[in-house]
Design the sequence.
């Protein structure tokens, strides 16, 4: 069993409530942090090697140290709880089960950054989680853990939860800031970076839910201890949300460094492929990252086992590798149509493009339409080349990474599964029809 | 702004709006726009008419266009009337892998409507939506604030039956019970 730093107490009955959370060491991290200097906390986070858990993997401590601190200008910590990357559901899982861990992390982070007012931006669809967080915040205020002079430290800290209204793009930090200002979620051109001009043009740090939560054990155990877990620059634990054709979908906290094969097949994690089927492909870090076929997700190009780390998953670049991303781990069995799965992703990115940049606004729509044409049985071999051409003209040509997020799945599906596209084009009768529900549940559509 | 605007929040909704506005610094009240649009949608029958949006603009002292451009950007805001129960079935990759297309087809057949349409009696609107962060419990759908997960055809039958039997007022994401 790997060490659990975030989910250790997740199944304790009543851990949602402040009383039970405190009985299990809750807010001890905040108490310790308030006795430290803000710079010392930032130093511990740097030493921990913690990397942003939302997908980009940028070192959190470094992000914190970039924050501008002009006199007399308020600054803010904003938690990105706009979890919308297909395959990713770890933040929702944590917030609904152990909301105080997020509040404690926000208080520690805000103290370290000198932010007296901070916000949690949660996606609008998760209204019930919004209420869970609000209730927990109310409890924390009543107990003097939020508000004036928290825990008698002299530090004043207000925390608010803010809801969005359905827009994947608001997970991009500058779009999130725009949305929090009551505007359309259009990403900003960087620079200036949020650390200089963020929310209301004030210095701002935006961190993912899991990153904020991880600060709590880092403060408690010290950055050096945290960094002992993991492999190389992939330190600590990571939440992986596993879904698709596996026996045990769910959220797992892993020590970074376990083999991918162990994660998929061991009973401690995914428990293998459903219905005794063979593995076909995996999207390892949320829908944006390249899909890999079975042989490449389990092993590196040189035959060594691939590990669940930032470095190992990206080994081989995009030719033979992928990314850890958000930890949204989507598993597909041997009967899956990679082309149809890709179509759902392309439709998603087309729907979610904010429309500012032409390559993304137009290109995502074209990719969706070309894939639709192929799946409709009217594709040509030129269409496959056209898809490749379109994706290559989106990547790197947009204000924010949604362009790359839309291009990479298309590029990788063609790179690794070109024969499937060609088979659909040459022999339309081979196109797999949708009967997943009926197939997976062993019932006939006619009966239902 | 239309002074003859007849739409008005209930006292509870007004009080909630004031609390929401106070979460942001002086002069930054526009930040409360999205939360207030959720409240408006709950107060005014599950959708946002231009009168409803004008009213929200007046509460925040911003121009109506600032509200329209936001309301039209976010997928949770309905700019046309919808049924009392809006069934939102996720159809992105992870849900599709576990049969969301079949769930959509099943509901379409059961309600005799296509995705995007509303039943003749005004009871149900069926929508397909993009990933709702419920991939480990796929297939799933959302009605109001409730996530219905690990769907089976039988569960779908029961949920629709339950809605028919119990729903009187429109069910929007934010409901009257949140506004208190």
Sequence:
């Amino acid at each position: 069993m790997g060490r659990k730093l975030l989910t250790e107490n997740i199944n304790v009955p009543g851990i949602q409530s402040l009383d039970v959370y405190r009985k299990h060491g809750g807010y001890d991290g905040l108490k310790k942090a308030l006795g430290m200097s803000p710079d010392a906390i930032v130093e511990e986070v740097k030493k921990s090697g913690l990397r942003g858990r939302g997908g980009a993997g940028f070192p959190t401590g470094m992000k914190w140290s970039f924050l501008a601190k002009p006199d007399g200008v308020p600054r803010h910590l904003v938690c990105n709880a706009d979890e919308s990357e297909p395959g990713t559901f770890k933040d929702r899982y944590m917030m609904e089960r152990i909301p105080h861990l997020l509040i404690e992390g926000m208080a520690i982070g805000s103290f370290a950054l000198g932010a007296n007012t901070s916000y949690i931006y949660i996606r609008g669809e998760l209204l019930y989680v919004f209420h869970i967080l609000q209730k927990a915040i109310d409890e924390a205020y009543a107990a003097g853990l939020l508000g004036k002079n928290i825990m008698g430290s002299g530090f004043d800290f207000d925390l608010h939860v803010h809801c969005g209204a359905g827009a994947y793009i608001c997970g991009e930090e500058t779009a999130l800031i725009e949305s929090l200002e009551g505007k359309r979620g259009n990403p900003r051109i960087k620079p200036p970076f949020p650390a200089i001009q963020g929310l209301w043009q004030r210095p701002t740090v935006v961190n993912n839910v899991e990153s904020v939560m991880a600060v709590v054990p880092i403060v408690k155990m010290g950055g050096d201890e945290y960094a002992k877990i993991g492999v190389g620059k992939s330190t600590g634990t990571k939440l992986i949300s596993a879904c698709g054709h596996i026996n045990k979908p769910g959220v797992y906290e892993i020590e970074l460094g376990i083999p991918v094969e162990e994660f998929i097949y061991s009973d401690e994690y995914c428990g293998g492929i459903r219905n005794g089927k063979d593995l076909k492909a995996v999207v390892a870090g949320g829908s944006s990252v390249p899909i890999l076929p079975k042989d490449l997700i389990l092993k590196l190009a040189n035959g060594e086992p691939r590990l669940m780390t930032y470095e190992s998953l990206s080994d081989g670049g995009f030719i033979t590798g992928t990314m850890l991303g958000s930890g949204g781990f989507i598993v597909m069995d041997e009967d899956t149509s990679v082309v149809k799965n890709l179509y759902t992703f392309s439709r998603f990115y087309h729907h979610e493009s904010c429309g500012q940049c032409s390559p993304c606004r137009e290109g995502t729509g074209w990719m969706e339409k070309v894939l639709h044409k192929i799946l409709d049985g009217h594709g040509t071999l030129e269409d496959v080349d056209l898809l490749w051409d379109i994706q290559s003209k989106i990547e790197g040509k947009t204000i924010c990474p949604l362009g790359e997020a839309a291009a990479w799945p298309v590029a990788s599906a063609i790179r690794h599964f070109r024969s499937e596209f060609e088979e659909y084009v040459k022999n339309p009768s081979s196109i797999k029809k949708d009967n997943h529900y009926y197939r997976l549940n062993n019932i006939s559509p006619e009966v239902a | 702004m239309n002074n003859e605007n007849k739409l008005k929040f209930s006292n509870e909704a007004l009080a909630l709006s004031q609390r929401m506005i106070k979460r942001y610094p002086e002069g930054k009240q526009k930040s409360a726009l999205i939360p207030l649009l959720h409240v408006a949608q709950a107060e005014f029958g599950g959708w946002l008419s231009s009168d409803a949006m004008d009213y929200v603009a007046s509460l925040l002292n911003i121009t109506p266009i600032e509200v329209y451009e936001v309301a039209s950007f976010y997928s949770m805001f309905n700019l046309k009337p919808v049924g009392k129960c809006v069934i939102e079935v996720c159809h992105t990759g992870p849900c599709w892998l576990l049969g969301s297309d079949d769930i959509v087809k099943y509901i379409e057949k059961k309600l005799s409507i296509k995705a995007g349409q509303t039943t003749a009696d005004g009871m149900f609107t069926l929508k397909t939506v993009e990933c709702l962060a419920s991939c480990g419990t796929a297939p799933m759908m959302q009605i109001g604030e409730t996530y219905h997960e690990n769907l089976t055809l039988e569960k779908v039958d029961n949920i629709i039956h339950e809605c028919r039997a119990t729903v009187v007022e429109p069910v929007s994401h934010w409901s009257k019970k949140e506004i208190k």
Notes: Residues 227 and 374 of chain A are 48 Å apart (CA to CA). Residues 231-333 of chain A form a domain with the Ubiquitin-like (UB roll) fold (CATH 3.10.20.600).
